[in-house]
Structure formats: C-alpha cells, structure tokens
Design brief:
Strands 17-18-16-15-19-20-21 form a seven-stranded mixed sheet, sandwiched between helices. 40% of the residues lie in helices and 21% in strands. Helix 10 packs across helix 17 and helix 15 packs across helix 19. The chain folds into two domains: 235 residues, Nucleotidyltransferase, domain 5 (2-Layer Sandwich), CATH 3.30.420; 215 residues, ATPase, nucleotide binding domain (Nucleotidyltransferase, domain 5), CATH 3.30.420. It is an alpha/beta fold. The protein is globular, with a radius of gyration of 22 Å.
Amino acid sequence: MVREYNFLGFDFGASSGRAMLGRFDGEKIELSELHRFSNDPVNLVGRFSWDAPRLFYEMKVALNGASKLGVPIDAIGIDTWGVDFGLIDKSGRLAGIPVHYRDRRTDGAMEKAFEVLPKEEIFRLTGLAFLQFNTLFQLFAMRLEDDPQLKIADKLLMMPDLFAYLLTGKVGTEYTIASTSQLINPYTRNWDEELIARFGLPRHIFTDIQPAGTVRGTLLPEIARECGVGEIPVIAVASHDTASAVAAIPVSDPEFAYISSGTWSLLGAEIRTPLCEPGVMDANYTNEGGIDGTIRLLKNIVGLWIIQECKREWDRRADAVDFAEIVKMAEKAEPFIAFLDVDDQCFLAPGDMPRRIQAYCERTGQRVPKSRGEIARVVYESLACKYRWAVERLEKDLLRKRVNVLHIVGGGSKNEMLNQFTADALNRPVIAGPDEGTVIGNLLVQAMGVGAIRDLKELREVVERSFPTRKYLPGNAGDWDPAYERFQRLVGSYS
C-alpha cells in the first residue's frame, strides 16, 4: 500500500501570505487552503519594513488550524519573495525589523557600489541582473550608513530562512533564495568570497548554503506545544517563490520559456550552465538558482503590480471593483491607443498609478487613456508587447534557438485576456497553469525532501497528472505586428 503524505506549505507574496495543505498519494497531489492573511508592509521611523513578527504569528495560527483539523503534517516548507533578509544577533534574536525591498535606503547605493567594483566585474562574478534593491546593495547601503544592525549582526538569513529559523532554531541558507542576493557565485553555488571582501561585508554573517530539499530541522518543542502539533520536520524547499513556480511547470516541449506571473513577471528559460557574458548583462537577464542543478535564466519585468496599484487608487477614489471587472472594462476599450515601458522607473514605487500612466503617455507624445478600461487595456497590451520583446532577446541574443511554447504559471495565469494577448503578440502557443504553481512546487519539493519523489522530472509528471492547463493559440498577428513596431520605437529594439 502506497503511503499518503500531508505537506504544509507557507507561501509569502509581496501583498499576502497563505498556508496550503497538500495531500500526496504517490501519483497526484491535492491542495486545500488552510489559512490566508494579508502581508502589509509598514513605515517605521522612516523605514519601509516587513511586519515579520505578525507574519510569524500567522504561521502559528495555521499550525494551530492544522492541529484542530486533526491532519498529521509530515513536513513544512516556506517560500517567499527574493533579496530581503533579517539579521540575527549573538543572542539569537532579531537585530531589527527586516526592511522592504522598496525602501529608499538603496537609492544611489548601486552607483556607489560600481565605484568599488565595476558593474561588469560584479556581473562576471555573480551573473545576476542589477536591481537597486538586491541584497548586495542593501548591505552596502547599511555599511555606508554605518547601520548599527550590521555591527551587531551574527547571522544573515534570507526571509524564508528567517522563518525556518524561528520555527526550528536552526540557521542555514537555501540555494535558490541565496541566488537572488547578488552575492552567490553561480558556478560554485556558494558565497563569492571576493565580492564579500571587496565590499567590506562581515563574512561571519553568511551561513552554509543548502540545496532545495534539505531538512533544516524540526519544530522547536515550545512551538510544537503552543500549536498542538508534533515536532514536524521543516524542509528548505525551493524557497524563492519563482524557483518553486518554475519547478512546477508541466513541461512537454523542451524548447520552452516561462513567465511566473504575479506582482512581478519573471520571464525566462531553464538552462544547465550559467551565462555570465557581457551580452547577458546588457540584456538585463539574470542567472538564478533552480532545483536539480538547473539555472533560471530570466528577466524581471514589472508585472501585474501596475494593475494592482491602479485598483488600489480606483478603490480609494470611487466604488471598489474586482480584477475580473477591470478585465471586462479593458475588453470594451479601444485597442492600441498607447503603450508603456512597464519597467520605467516611474512605475516602481507605490502611489497614484493611473495618473502616472497618463503622465507617461503625455510625456511620450501618445494619446492619453482616460477611463479605467482604457488605462487597464494599455497596461495589458504593453505587458504582452514587453513579453514578446523579452522572448525575442532571449532567443536571438542568449539561447540562440527558437522558443516553441511559452508557459505561464502563477496567479496571472488566470487572466485570460492577458494570456490571449501574449499568444497573439508572440505568435506562438501559450500554456497557462497551474495558477498555484508556487505552492505546488513548494509542496512537491517537500516530497523530494522526504524521499517520496526522486527528481525534477518526476515532480513535473506529478504536476501534469494533478492539474489542468489551458492552451491559447495565437491569432490577430496582423493587428499585433504593427502595434509591436510602435512599442519597439518607444522602448528600443531588442537588437
């Protein structure tokens, strides 16, 4: 008789978190939501911060909920967004509240870092694309500010590793989340000693790197008693949320690209050897760690964040509408009235996003969208064009081969309008789903950790058996090709 397993996955996004149960019978996995909660950053004395204590409280609420259901949990896994971290002092306590990647402390830090070590050299050592909030630049900003937290820090823990530490008391750093820091050598898959030394960072704060699937430890006895559960093993899954999502792609054609679609759109391909050439840097692609020896060659594109911020502002001004209603409004709007470079700096920070979109269109000499439907359609069409732009660069300049199909996973895979726009813009098939890719990857890497799944190939076979997908075939290329030419003139050609 095949044993059944129950896994508990914590999946933290930039705006919410949830605890999901996965029941695995050896063939398929079934999901059920145990607990969902908001993830609301807070401004604390001039710092935009994560409310880590409350998030940990919500984790214990979920564990208590599992106890009340009488579900025996075989393992726990945690995934979060990348780059951010907490610092632990010598007493084992938090040295301060973890700071949000959108905090302004890193303004100008990247440029100052290039005075220490040229941009090209940093990329050669790390293969990571340059974003001002990467862990390297956060730490460098702290050093420049003479931040007392850095002086008293004994250990640096990326956010999923921090939560694992609070559960188990054990320190360690999982490889996929570490790979977002711009402090990892992609060839050795370990901390880059030269980089740490050149930037004057304290070496002792960096813990051992562990591969996804490593058993980090078991729940502390006091946590187990408080939540009414046993001393459950905590497994370091592919703890960067995108790494978990990519692991859960039900691949059929090996010549595939993917988008992990949510607040950010992470677009890329899966490779075995990192690409740290100057051309990769120029294209702003990045080499992040995957499971089973894979590298995620991808590009960060500002994704549904723009729509999320539009909705936030519209809800504040007038009657609230849900995202489905925004899509309906966009469907009725006139096509191709304007385009955005969604990665323009003006769209990065929170604020009045509809007005920023209108100001951008004014500044670039385009027709200004007025209604909510027009604004939303401009965003969706611009995203589809940016995806085509990024895929063309991936094919022609980096992989040097054609991508046959694009997989879209994550919450954005449910947006049928954007999926069809993407298929039309690329003129190739798009396969959408599963929409819960991140947590599925989290749960199934736990299965690898306990020996119930052998490898990535078997993991993806389980996903294919367990969850439906939807295929979008391209059409209307005659309309999209001239629209894309206009978009290219706005953002610049890929060549």
